[in-house]
Specification:
Blueprint: H1 2-16, E1 24-29, E2 38-43, E3 51-56, E4 61-66, E5 72-78, E6 85-89, E7 93-97, E8 107-109, H2 112-123, H3 125-144, H4 147-174, H5 179-190, H6 196-204, H7 208-211, H8 214-225, E9 249-251, E10 257-259, E11 267-273, H9 278-294, E12 299-305, H10 312-321, E13 328-329, H11 338-342, E14 350-354, E15 360-363, H12 367-378
Parallel strand pairs: 1-7, 11-12, 12-13
Antiparallel strand pairs: 1-4, 2-3, 2-5, 5-6, 7-8, 9-10, 11-14, 14-15
Helix pairs in contact: 3-4, 4-5, 5-8, 9-12
Organism: Bizionia paragorgiae
Domain Thioredoxin: 239-379
Subcellular location: Cell envelope
Amino acid sequence: MIKKLALLSLILLGFSCEKQNDAYEINGVIDSSLNNKVVSIHAVYGIPNKVIDTDTIKDGTFKFTGKVDAPEGFYMSVESLNGVIPIILENKNMSIEVYKDSLHASKVSGSRQNDFVTEYNEAHVLKRNFNTELRERYTNAQKLGDKSAMDAVKQSYDSLMVVATKNDIDFIKSHHDAIISGITLERLVKTNKVDEAEFNTLYENLSDVVKNSRAITNIKTTFTKVATPSAATSKPGAINVGNKAPNFSGFTPEGEAMTLSDIKAKVTVIDFWASWCRPCRVENPNVVKMYNKYNSKGLEIIGVSLDKASQKDRWIKAIADDKLTWPQVSNLEGWKEPIAVQYGVRSIPATVILDENGVIVAKNLRGQQLEDKVAELLQ
């Protein structure tokens, strides 16, 4: 009995004294044909593409050591190779097998957080492949000047993005303790795929580790900073679906003041765009087509430009070139545009759809989805 107790004590002592990693070590293997090439680790936040560490490949291997205060997303690049390797740095001993012909498919092991990244990537393989196919089809159609083919590709892309967003949200819900969930949620918020109310719902399900991650902290700070200059009394969440759209004011190209309340229609679309925004300009023909089809039935659009004062002539020219015949306003302050700040717009193009009572019924619809929603509301 005494020997058994002694043995048990040693086992327990071993568990209690097990050393916890206070730094990370990454050992990588790669095709030796890349010897003397440089592998770099880049930050995904702060200064874009900032390199935080490098190592030179020797005998088909490379190594990184360091320490992070908390698990965080980074990516690796390899000199002369296309693509990047997403990786979560955490204080663990990790290994990585690099596939030089497909960096994104490289395997990171020894880290639970990177297992989550692998799950996420595997769940999105079809989306990435289809997205690549769509880009190729659009480029070919553009070269041939085939507008109908280009429109078809854009509709397919819009549908793909809806499915991708749903898959992202489902992943976040089922992986509450994954840092990649926090990073994904940050991206959805920044691209206006998730509003504050939806963020709060997803946030409640996250583990404390993810709630305290840089990505989630950044989102919370962003929402806190979103002010409402021309509607200072608006309550938080005023731009959420189901709430009354806050009024705003801006100036037309002719310098006349105009407010949202000046627009009287069965359906109103607030369209955030800019003359310098290529995706906006590509989308404009779809908006023109929709406007010409439904304006007589009760649709009105008010465009809000994120151009700067120095770009006013470009703004006016873009309105004429793209045949935007609906009301246009701006305070010409770029990304500091008060209306955009008021509505929490962090990327463009962006849309907010209102019913005849000025209630927000949908946000950030484009292409066929936007037209279908307008048609539904006008029935």
